[in-house]
Structures are given as structure tokens and as C-alpha cells.
Amino acid sequence: MSVAGILFTGLHRGSFTDIMERTVATLPFLCRYRMIDFALSNMVNADITNVNVITKDDYHSLIEHIGSGKDWDLARRSGGLTMLPPYLNTNTASGLQSSPRLSELKNVYPSLSFKEDHVVLCDCDTVCSIDLNEIVNDHIAHDADITVAVKNQFVTPEQSRNTIIFDADENGRIFDTSINPSNESGYRNVSINIMVIKTDYLMAIIDDSIAHGYGSFSRDVIAKRADRRNFRIYQYDGAISTIADFNDYYNVSMRMLADRDLRNAVFNVKNRPVYTRVRNSVPTKYHAGCAVHNSLIADGCTIEGRVENSILFRGVKVGRGTVVKNSILFQDTLTGENVELNCVVTDRGVVIRDGRKLSGHESLPFYIGKGKMI
Prior knowledge:
Blueprint: E1 3-8, H1 14-17, E2 28-29, E3 33-34, H2 36-45, E4 50-54, H3 60-66, E5 80-84, H4 90-93, H5 101-107, E6 118-123, E7 126-128, H6 132-141, E8 146-155, H7 157-160, E9 164-168, E10 174-179, E11 186-198, H8 199-212, H9 217-225, E12 231-235, E13 240-242, H10 246-258, H11 260-267, E14 285-286, E15 291-293, E16 296-297, E17 302-303, E18 306-308, E19 311-312, E20 317-318, E21 323-325, E22 328-329, E23 334-335, E24 340-342, E25 344-346, E26 351-352, E27 357-359, E28 366-368
Parallel strand pairs: 1-4, 1-6, 4-5, 8-12, 14-17, 15-18, 16-19, 17-20, 18-21, 19-22, 21-24, 22-25, 23-26, 24-27, 25-28
Antiparallel strand pairs: 2-3, 6-11, 7-13, 8-11, 9-10
């Protein structure tokens, strides 16, 4: 059995650029990680050592983070990590901020070359530790053309608008697909944006899609061909958190902070570590009189005030008399003295001067853009 991997980093881009100038793949997460680390680590832990990363136009921070792939043991002469360059297509040219997976594969088709028998396709919008080998083995055991990983979970009509739902028979074979439905509620098989596909079939699908102008795996391939191809679901029952927009990012981060069991289900799974770029920093300095409660604080910070229920990335400074609550402060955020922050997310390099009082709400956090001074 040989397996290659493809990571999509530019999907869901429109959900974040209205607020944060980032793709979901490059979002900093829990003090030291980026969202792409989870998908990339899942592949490496499954011994997938030929990984292709499809980039978009705002890819510089992604390349800075991943580099040669050595932190994931992907700096190899054969296989390893391949960054597929950004491209211009009809979606980006018309001002749209995302494109379906099949459209992205069509654009990088000349660069795709696999010796492996199967390919795992993953988005970078989920926080989870999943055994991809189990999905691949299930895919092979049933001689499936495509196997889609799903989680049976409760959805409301509002939540269903951002999901793809697969209906399958008692044997796991897909017979119907609902794409972003507006009226679904109850327990449904919701896609977690991971699929396994035979390599030959993948290349044939891309060829056919170029010839016929298809753009969506779910709509143009699975939904239209389920009656004559062996498309299956794989039920995943582990912990998973999906980030579709800015509010999801804040809420998932706060849940991970508050729930130790949830953190352990992602970061303390035996033989499935989460890898990230290794950066050596000085220890965080806690000054006399400071206070920290229920918070995650990275290396290189300076804490002079009070931090509660918050997540601080590298190089953050909390000044004297300052109180930071329910907030996420990205790298190199500096707060002056006697500042009050509640439900605030600051991007990299933000400076908040003395005496400022800023507050959002759990349902609508206040965001401060990269390099801003207040």
C-alpha cells in the first residue's frame, strides 16, 4: 500500500479575509501552532511522505512557516514536501475568494505526479488527531473509488448551510449528497473534508473535469456518479473542531483552553504527535505582582499585569496594571500600563497604549488588525 497526500490551503478563504488577512491554513492556534500543522501532522503520522501543498496568492507566511518541511521530517530527496505555486483562475479574477477542490486540482494538474496507489485529500480547517491509516485501510478493504470521512453530529438549519452532508446505506455506500442545505436539522453525516481516492481514478476525474468544465468534487463527481461508482463514507467518532469563520476560530480556541480532555484528545494521543515549526525563545518572564489564571502563554512573553482565560503567543507583553481577559493576543502584541482587554483578538505586532479599555463579546469578539496601534 502506498499513499500520497494533497493539502488544500486556500479553501474557505472568503470566511476570513473580511476580518483577518489570512487563509485558515496560516491561522496561529494555541500559542505555537498554525492550522496547517494538524493536517500535515496527521499525514506524517500515517507515514505519508509525499505531500503536495496547494497554495494561493497569500502564501508567503505559509512558506515561512513550513520551510523545507524538516520539522515534519519531509525534507527528502524522494517525495517529501512539494509546494504547488499560486495561480490565477476565473474565481480569483472575478473577485471571489475561494474555489472548489476540483477547480484547484485542475489548475495544478500539470504539476501532479504520483507513483502511489492512493491519494489522501485534506483541507486545513479542522483541529483533530485522526488515524488516516484506518481510513485508507477501510477504503482498500471495500475496494472503494472514493472514501469520504464524516462525523455523525447534530446540526441546526443555520449550521447546515456551511456543510456537506452524505447519506449512506447500512453498508456505508453513499446514495445522496446535500451541499450547503438550508433546512437540515438533527444528526447527519457531516463531511470533515478528508477523502481517500484511487490515484488513477483521481487523474481520470481531473481529465474529465477539464474537458467538461466541472469544478466541484461533491456536486460534479460524488453527487452525479454515486449510483454507478463505489463511493463510501468512513465514520470518525473522535474529537474534532471545524473552523469555518472568525467566530469559530475564537470559540474553538476558548473551548480548547477550557477543556483539558479536549486538548488531550488532540495533543496527547499516543504515537500521533502534532508537529510544528521549532523556534527557540527565551522563557516567559513573570514579574512580581503579576497574576495568571487558566491561560496558555508561549515562550518569550513578559507578564507584569493580570491574565485570565486567555491565549498569548510569543513575545507578548502585558504591562503593569493591565488586565487581559478572554482574549487571544498574537505574536509581539504589546500592551501598555493600565489597559483592559476583554474578548479581544489582536493580530501580530499590535500596540495598545496606556489606559485603553477595549471589549468585545463572546458572540462577537473585537479584532485588531496586524501592526495597528491604539
